[in-house]
Structures are given as structure tokens and as C-alpha cells.
Amino acid sequence: MTPPHEHPVITPTKDGSTTLYSPRFRQHYHNPNGAVAESRHVFFETSGLPDAISRNESLAVFETGFGTGLNLLLLHEYLHQSDKKIRATYYSVEAFPVDAATASQFDFGDNPFLNRSIPALADIFEQLKPGLNTFDISERLTLHLFAGFFDDFFEGDFISEKVDFIFHDPFSPEANPGLWTPEVFKKLASVTNQNTVLSTYCAATSARAAMAVAGWYVARAPGALGKREMTVASLNPLILQSFKRVNEKRLAERYKSADFKIDK
Ligand SMILES: C[S@@+](CC[C@H](N)C(=O)[O-])C[C@H]1O[C@@H](n2cnc3c(N)ncnc32)[C@H](O)[C@@H]1O
After folding, report:
1. Distance from residue 50's CA to the centre of ligand 1 (Å)
2. What residue ranges line ligand 1, CB within 6 angstroms?
3. How far is residue 51 CA from its own chain's centroid?
4. Domain contains 252
5. Does some domain include residue 2?
């Protein structure tokens, strides 16, 4: 069936915040049970990012799929709430940016800080040009947003530092298989330091296996809002000590022998 139109459609979620539905990928950008609640759980609480804010002097994040910009705004909020003078750099890529008019209709539910940031977010979408765009979000937070495809971003060598956290958020392996390959996870590995944590809502065996082929250690974590599991990964197994690891060697062998179908 041909989608009625290509533009994402604003959709309410059960925690009172809005998300988008993508006719192109036929998928919501967030869990319909709660966009803000899911993002907080997967990318912040499970990854340990709030602890890193209290420990470090600087922080860098890479996100696959800027989407609504919600993860950027959540980081902005965590930094704002911290009494530490930490500086953060946020790299993100987005091939299909929403227009400013759509962004100005976002609603982050009962969170006044996020809602107050919506006009600034709409401005970012208004000013966005193809390629790398840099915005100072606050005196502590800089955004480098690449309007274009993930592969072009990595070919352009646009990250000038190693990142501490990777938010891998490009729709599911079924909807967007090209961003769940060992090649993609090798590219992500190239911008890590020894403590980097990659987190994703995805718990698909095939996705974990692709990470394992690329040399990542991989672990299960409790999922958000009724989802049984999500995934965390690192190139340093010590970082995953509090999680239950998968058997990376066996998964990598299965991936190489094409032993499984893509699953969710
Ligand atoms: C699940 S949504 C991201 C949600 C986002 N993190 C948020 O908080 O709203 C996935 C995003 O990845 C983008 N995307 C999909 N494939 C891409 C690619 N190859 N390169 C860059 N962006 C891509 C989509 O347009 C979409 O905005």
C-alpha cells in the first residue's frame, strides 16, 4: 500500500507527550505508551548518563536519528538540573527532518522545561541546511546536527572527538535494516572511547548479533513501558558488569552463517 503522504504525523502517547508516526517507515518514533518516559528509560536511566553528568567535566553523545529532537531536549534538561558545570556536545544525524511547523506542534506533556524549549527546537528545524549544522543550545550544550544520511555523515569524518554515549535510534531492524548491520556498528565503534555505552530500545537477536560481529560486548536490560528487554553494548565488558551479557561469540557465528530471520 502506498503511504497517503510522506510527512510524519503527530500522535499522542499515553504519558501525555506526543510522538510522530512515519508513513515512510510505517512506524512510530517512540513507544505509544509514552514518548518521554521511553526516551528517559532507554537512553538516560539505563545508560547511566545522569551519573556521568555528576562525575565528568565534559560529555559527548552521538545519536542515530534526531527525529523529534526529544533526546537532545532531555539532555538539555538533565544538564540544566545539575549543579555541575559540565559541557556537553551532541552529535546527531537526520535524513528526513521534520518541518518547523510540525515541530512547533509537539507537546511534551506535563514537562514545562521541555515544552518551553519547543520554539527553540522549531527554530533549529527552520534553519537546518543539508550537511553539518551547529547550534548552541545553552552555554553548556552544543548540537552538531547533520542533515543527511548516516553513511554520508561517517564518510565526512564530522566527529572530532570520541563520544561517551551512543543513542542508536533509527527505527527497528525490520523497518530500517540498513542501520542494523555490522558495518554500521563498526562505524559507531570508530567514535568510541574505552567507556562508551551504546543503548537502544531494540532487543532483536539479529541486531545484537550484528553488534557482536562488529566487536561489541552486548547485554540485556529491562525494557521500557511493558517491553521485556532493551539492549546496551560497549567495547569494554567491564562497563556492562551490572547487566546480563549475551553470548557474543555464538551470536556472531549465527550471524555469519545467516542462522536467523530478522526478528523484533
Ligand atoms: C525512531 S526515529 C528517531 C527518534 C528520535 N531519536 C526522537 O527522539 O524523536 C528514527 C529517525 O531516524 C531517521 N533515519 C532513518 N534512516 C536514516 C538514515 N539512514 N540516516 C539518517 N537518519 C535516518 C528517521 O528519519 C527518523 O527521524
Report:
1. 23
2. 29, 39, 63, 65, 67-68, 70-71, 93-96, 149-150, 169-171, 176, 179
3. 18
4. yes
5. no
Q: Assign residue 106 the CATH number of its domain.
A: 3.40.50.150
What is the per-residue pLDDT across 44-77, written as a single tens digit (0 to 9) for each? Answer: 999 999 999 999 899 999 999 999 999 999 999 9
- pTM given for the model: 0.96
CA dihedral over 86, 87, 91, 94, signed as positive or negative = positive
State how far the Cα of 243 lies from the Cα of 223, in Å rounded to an integer.
Answer: 12
Note whether residue 16 is domain-resident.
Answer: no
Number of domains into which the chain is organized: 1
Residue 204 inside a domain? The answer is yes
Ligand 1 atom nearest the C-alpha of 27 is 1
Question: In degrees rounded to 5, what are phi and psi of residue 13?
Answer: -115, 170
Kindly list the strands in the beta sheet with 192-200, ordered across the sheet, starting from the edge strand earlier in the chain: 131-138, 141-147, 87-94, 58-64, 163-168, 192-200, 229-234, 217-222, 244-245
**DSSP class of residue 128?**
-
* Size of the chain in residues: 264
